[in-house]
Amino acid sequence: MPPPPALEIRGLVKTYGEATVVDHLDLDVAPGAVTALLGPNGAGKTTTIECCEGLRSPDGGSVRILGLDPVRDARELRPRVGVMLQDGGLPGSARAHDVLAHVSKMYARPRDVAGLAERLGIDTFARTQVRRLSGGQRQRLALACAVVGRPDLVILDEPSAGMDPQSRRAVWDLVRELRADGATLLLTTHLMDEAADLADHVVVMDHGKVIAAGTPDELTSVEGDSVVSIEARGPLDPTSLRGYLHRLAPGDWAVHHVEGHRYTVTGAVNPRSLAAIGTWAAEHGVLLTSISLGRRTLEDVFLDLTGRSLR
Ligand SMILES: Nc1ncnc2c1ncn2[C@@H]1O[C@H](COP(=O)(O)OP(=O)(O)OP(=O)(O)O)[C@@H](O)[C@H]1O
Known about the structure:
ATP hydrolysis activity, transport, ATP binding
């Protein structure tokens, strides 16, 4: 029998006035794994996480964390759950290192503060007051505070948002290490490569509901189909290309604009249809500067699932 989930959400509902921002959400976070929660702005990710932490009271449904109730059993859960919120929630007038040292003293078996401060580069701003830290520095300090107590469950809301590439790598290494040590991680992110790289399991939510879930591999592989990435010297008409491919081989063809003059074509790609893309381009005076065959990326899948309009 599989072990019980570290975090179990059933039928969670959260409304603000007329708006239902979390809409009968079911979500399991497997123990000892990294789960990435993805979704467009306003999808309800932070609200879901805040309900899990007991910071928001749900209007319906239930949340169990490590088998316990986040509000009733808050005291028992505190040392076992590490949380990094988007706004940090750190005291503005305290110095960075003092905050971390203070938080570490709340735990029975904290990590080595000096080691953690060094690997997340907190040393370089140890004596600076929290309110004077840059966004990325504050994020790193909040992350250190979330993990210093060796929690069983670590919840990170956009851990690498606003971080420079060096800091992001340090965060990724830390996440991998926590997982290797047996911790369970739930993180939200807008970085698709971060999710693809780190997560064992990806959950995509939109309009307060889960709309897809699986391993990154499951989500990006389309049985028997591939994706062709093309780049042209100028713009091209996706509808015309799609129609051409459909007339050649009726099926589920899609042509998406990625950005600039880059497009992806998905469908039953084979030598004939690949050649047909070239023929269509020649007939329409479109110069293709690159054409390559590959898998869909998590970003392709995300955009297909959640649409391309801004929220
Ligand atoms: N206190 C509040 N009162 C009213 N509406 C709220 C409140 N908090 C959040 N919302 C709304 O709930 C919706 C979901 O917000 P939430 O922060 O959970 O989204 P998110 O998926 O985390 O988005 P992002 O990726 O931008 O962080 C949004 O439309 C937001 O405006």
